[in-house]
Design goal:
Layout lengths: L1 H16 L3 H7 L6 H26 L1 H25 L6 H10 L1
Helix pairs in contact: 1-3, 1-4, 3-4
Amino acid sequence: MNLAALLLTYAGLLALALTRSPYRRAVLPREPAPTLVRLLPPCGWLLLVVSACLLGSNLGWPLGLVTWCADIAGGGFALIMLLAWHPRLTPLPLALAAGLLL
């Protein structure tokens, strides 16, 4: 469950980062539709809330929220490093995890 929450947190942070046009241009091969861009912030926040609820329900709320903060720090660090190093690889951890989970 912790890996799932970490991946949800990473996906939420990536969705929030893609709301900014410099990151969209760096990560995506072409500009998405304006409707999709408007949906990214609510989806990002929803993914963060779902990851917090997942950890809170599994570990108990006190420990779950502390673990969620650590997941935000770890996912944010990974996202920042990938955005700085090679922006086109930022969706790669999600694709690898989806392959492992399937």
